[in-house]
Structures are given as C-alpha cells and as structure tokens.
Specification:
This protein is of the alpha+beta class. It has twelve helices and 20 strands. It has a two-stranded antiparallel sheet. A two-stranded antiparallel ribbon has the order 3-4. A two-stranded antiparallel ribbon has the order 5-6. Helix 4 packs across helix 11. The radius of gyration is 27 Å and the shape is globular. 8% of the residues are buried. The N terminus is likely disordered.
C-alpha cells in the first residue's frame, strides 16, 4: 500500500528526495536550471539557431563540428575502417553502428587484438597465441617468440650500440630513421598552407591538397586493374590490390607476421609491447584499438551509459 501512496497525489509521511535548488541562470532568458548540463541543453534547444550553412547543399547547422561531419556525406571518402572485418565507413557513427553487428556475431572477443569468435574453444585456442612468447628482455620486458629477433633486440641495449642517423638537408638536424626524417620534413612546410575553398580545411602540401579536393569533386583517378574499383589516393589503390594479389608486404619484426598495411602492424605490435592506448573512462581498462574499446563500452557498460545519457538530456523545464 505504501508503494501506491508514494506514486499517488496523496500526502505521505515517508521522506521524499528533494530536487536541488536551481542555481544555473540562462543569460538569454529567465530560465533557471539545477545543473549545468540542463542549462546547456536548454540553450541549445531554445536560443542557438541554425545559422551555419553547408557550402555544398546549403543545409544549416548550429555548430561547426556538425558541418564537418555532414560534409562527409557529400564525399566518397570512407576513412573509418572496421578493425574486425575491414569494412569502411564515411563517419565514425556509421562505424559504431556497424560494430554493434559484431556484438551479435562474435560472442567471444579477444581484448588483446580485437579478434572475435563464435565458438568458445576457438577463442581459448586463440588466447594461447598471446601467451606463447619464450624470450623476455630483462632490460625493457619486451617479449619475443623468435630467438633471432630477440638477440637483435638485445644489441640495442649494449652501451656501444648506435643507430645510424639520417640528416635533414634543410636544417642539418639528425634523425634516427628515414621515417622520422619524413615527419620532420613536414615542419618545414607548415608555412605553406593550401586552403580548401569548399570546406576551409588547411593542407600543408600540394599533393595532400589535390587529394583532398577529390573528396568534394568525387574524382577517383586511381583504378584497380583487377576489378575496376577506383580510389581517390594512390596508396588506397595499393592497399586494395593486396586483396587480389594476396600480398602482405608489411612485416612484424618481432614474430614475423605479415600484414597488408602499416596501420595493422602498429596495432599488432601492441600485443608484444602490452600497450593499451585506448582507456575506458568508466573502469580504466585499456584496449588495443578504439573499435574494441567501443564494443567493450556497449557490451559491459550499456546500462550505465544509458543512465548518463538520460541524466544529460533531462528536460530543463522540470523543476
């Protein structure tokens, strides 16, 4: 009976939870909110108008980040790749929606590399591959399965070990490798800005500017000789053709595994180093890729995220 009284209009002697006194005042009207998130929601709904037009179709938005996201719908570029099945998407939200399908498809997800499995026995067998390292460096805890790579790595800790530097022709700076030299050279080009007249994006090199312009024009000059599929950038075509040639030219120097693109090697190396750069803000657990982190959030913290979202979007008119 007491439960009915608590939810009825009748007076109750039971203690009630009082709502906090409104302390956030809207600068545009007399509205008062109990929390800052409610005030921000109120201002976004009532006072902020859609005044920013899309330069392509004229559709108006409230914020610049909304235009930036919307512009991707006008291009054929798909920069977001699923690390579980290699499907590509125009927006991060599209990739996130797709990742939910893997939750249904893969009952068991490896948090070391992101690979998913339907059968538990396959998952357990796979997990053993992450614990098969036989050689551990006593200096930095790096793990190796291959003795030759392990011995090569040990030499880097010797007192007289020196890596041959490369020199910048412009400023004579000494860099440890050709890769770092390539990144360094970009610092000399930062004053040379190429500005896109469609979306306003600034590019540091002419080649990157030309490639970016193709996003808006839809031009795809690099065609695959095997299937006729076209691409905006030459490196996109190169990586795509590995599907047909079965070539995997990028090698892990630790265990000898081969991959079709450098980014896959970067993610794979985290298995050896133990690096987990993507942290869950809720439980502080680390993950090898952003996709695996997002899947973790939806599988483990779905209810908590729903509660947080509900609290952030509460009706500010309720007092």
């Amino acid at each position: 009976m007491s439960r009915i009284i608590l939810y009825s209009n009748a007076q109750s002697t039971a203690p009630s939870l009082e709502k906090p006194e409104p302390s956030f005042c809207c600068p545009d009207c007399s509205e008062k909110s109990a929390t800052y998130s409610q005030l921000r929601s109120h201002r976004n709904k009532v006072h902020i108008k859609k005044t920013l037009p899309c330069p392509v179709c004229g559709r108006k938005f409230k914020h610049h980040f909304e235009i930036k996201s919307h512009l991707k719908t006008h291009s054929n570029e798909k920069p977001y790749t699923c690390e579980l099945c290699s499907k590509v998407y125009k927006t991060s939200s599209g990739l996130l929606f797709h990742s939910k399908e893997h939750q249904k498809e893969f009952k068991y997800l490896c948090e070391d590399c992101g690979k998913g499995f339907v059968v538990q026995s396959q998952f357990k067998k796979h997990k053993k591959t992450h614990s098969g390292a036989q050689y551990k460096c006593k200096h930095c805890d790096m793990l190796y399965k291959n003795e030759d790579y392990y011995l090569k790595h040990l030499k880097t800790h010797e007192p007289n070990y020196q890596r041959q530097p490369v020199t910048c022709d412009i400023c004579n700076a000494k860099l440890i490798s050709a890769v770092t030299l390539k990144h360094h050279m970009r610092t000399h080009n930062r004053n040379c800005k190429y500005i896109c007249d469609v979306c306003g994006k600034e590019l540091t090199t002419l080649s990157s500017f030309k490639a970016h312009k193709r996003i808006h024009s839809g031009e795809k000059p690099f065609m695959c000789d095997f299937c006729g599929h076209s691409f905006i950038r030459k490196n996109q075509l190169k990586i795509h053709q590995f599907i047909h040639t079965k070539e995997k030219p990028y090698l892990c120097k630790v265990c000898g595994a081969h991959f079709t693109q450098p980014s896959s090697v970067t993610v794979h190396m985290r298995q050896h180093t133990g690096e987990r750069p993507y942290k869950c803000d809720i439980c502080q657990k680390g993950f090898v890729t952003k996709t695996v982190l997002k899947i973790h959030l939806f599988k483990v913290h779905t209810m908590l995220l729903a509660d947080i979202k509900k609290e952030a979007t509460d009706n500010p008119d309720e007092k």
